[in-house]
Amino acid sequence: MTIEIAPGALLPIALIFGLLIGSFLNVVIHRVPLEQSVVFPASHCPGCDAPIKAWDNIPILSYLWLRGRCRGCEAAISLRYPAIELLTGLLFTAIAWRFGPTWWTSAYCLFAAGLVAAAMIDHDHQIIPDSISLGGLAVALLIIPAIHAHYGEAWLDALVRASGGALVGSGVLWLVAFLHARVSVLMGRQFEHWPGEGEELPKPTEADYWLWFPGLGLGDVKLLGMIGAVVGPAGVLDTILASSVVGLILGGTQALARGALGRPFGFAPAIAVGTVAVLFLPPLWLLRVL
Ligand SMILES: [Zn+2]
Fold first, then answer.
1. How far, in Å, is the centroid of ligand 1 from the Cα of 157?
2. What span, in angstroms and rounded, lies between the C-alpha atoms of 252 and 200?
3. Where are the domains of the chain?
4. Pairwise CA distance, residues 76 & 96, whole Å
5. Phi, psi angle pair for 194, to nearest 5°
6. Cα 197 to chain center, whole Å?
C-alpha cells in the first residue's frame, strides 16, 4: 500500500515540508545543546531580542526579502539559517523522489532531519545530544519494524534486524574507538583533552577505560546505533565505511583550511553524509566496491 497523493504533488510537498522542518531544525540546533526548550520562547533576534514575526520567519523567502538582516536592528542573519532550510528541503525532495509515496519516505525524512541536527550540533559543540541519538534509536526501533510489517514482512524478523543493526553500528564504532584509545596509549600519543589536565589515564577497573576515548566519542557510538536500527546490519557497515571516507576528506580539508592537523572536529557531519549516501545506493555497494 502506498500513501494516496495526487501525481506530481509528492515532490513539491516534500520540498515545502523539508523547508519548514529545516526552519525548525535551526531552532533545535541552536537550543538543544544549551538545554533550552525548542518551543518556548518563540524565535527572537539575537541582536535586539525582538520576536520574529511569522511573516519574517518563512523559510528562505524571508531571508531573501529582508536581505539577510533583522527588520528591527539590521543585525546580519547568518547565511546558515537559509542554508539549513534549503539543505533539508532538498534532502526531503530527494528522499521522496527515491522512495515514492510510501511510508519509507516519511520515515527517512524524519531520520534525515535527525541527522542534520546531530551533524550541525556536533560541528558546533563536538557533542551529539542523547535526545537525538538515543531518542532516534527508540523511535527507529518502533517505526522501522512497523513499516516492514505494514509491507508484509514478519514484524519480529524486522525488529530483530533493526536491533541487530543498532548493535552492529554501535559495536563496530565502539571497538574502533576503544582500540584507537589503547593503541594511542601504547604509542605514547598525547591528546589535548584526554585525559584532562592533571588527570591519570583510566584503568581497566574504571568505567572510563571502556567508555571514554579521545577523538571518537560515545555520542558517535550512540548515533551509529540509531542509524543501524534504520538501515540494518549490512547497511550500517556500509555507512561506517562511507562515513570514514567522507571523514578523511572533511577532516583533511578542515585541517588544511585551519592550518592545524589533529585539531578536534565532530565526526557526525561525516556520518550524516555517509548515511545519506547509503540510503540512495544499493545494499553493500561499498563492501562490494572495496
Ligand atoms: Zn534585531
1. 53
2. 30
3. 7-101, 102-290
4. 34
5. -145, 110
6. 31
Query: Amino acid letter at 122?
Result: D
SS3 of 95-119 = HHHHHCCCHHHHHHHHHHHHHHHHH
> In terms of C-beta density within 10 A (0-12 exposed, 13-18 middle, 19 or more buried), how is residue 289 classed?
exposed
Predicted TM-score (pTM) of the model is: 0.90
Give me ligand 1 centre to Cα 58, in Å: 16
CB atoms within 10 A of CB 134: 16
Q: CA-CA distance, 84 to 235, in Å (whole number)?
A: 26
How far, in Å, CA of 54 to CA of 65, rounded? 14
Separation of 61 CA from ligand 1 center, angstroms? 18
Distance, in Å, from the CA atom of 213 to the CA atom of 177, rounded to the nearest integer, reads 6
DSSP bridge partners of 76: 69
What string of pLDDT tens digits covers the 290 residues of the chain?
566 777 789 999 999 999 999 999 999 999 999 988 888 888 888 788 888 888 888 999 999 999 999 988 888 989 999 999 999 999 999 999 999 999 999 999 999 999 999 999 999 998 999 999 999 999 999 999 999 999 999 999 999 999 999 999 999 999 988 998 899 888 888 887 778 777 888 888 988 889 888 877 899 999 999 999 999 999 999 999 999 999 888 878 877 877 665 555 678 999 999 999 999 987 666 665 54
Cell of 105: 519516505
Q: Residue 190 gets which letter from DSSP? A: -
For residue 67, the CA-to-ligand 1 centroid distance in Å is 13
DSSP 33: G
Distance from Cα 56 to the centre of ligand 1, integer Å:
12
Check: CB of residue 63 under 8 Å from CB of residue 77. Answer: yes
Biggest alpha carbon distance in the chain? 64
Torsion of the alpha carbons at 20, 124, 51 and 45, rounded to the nearest 10: -120
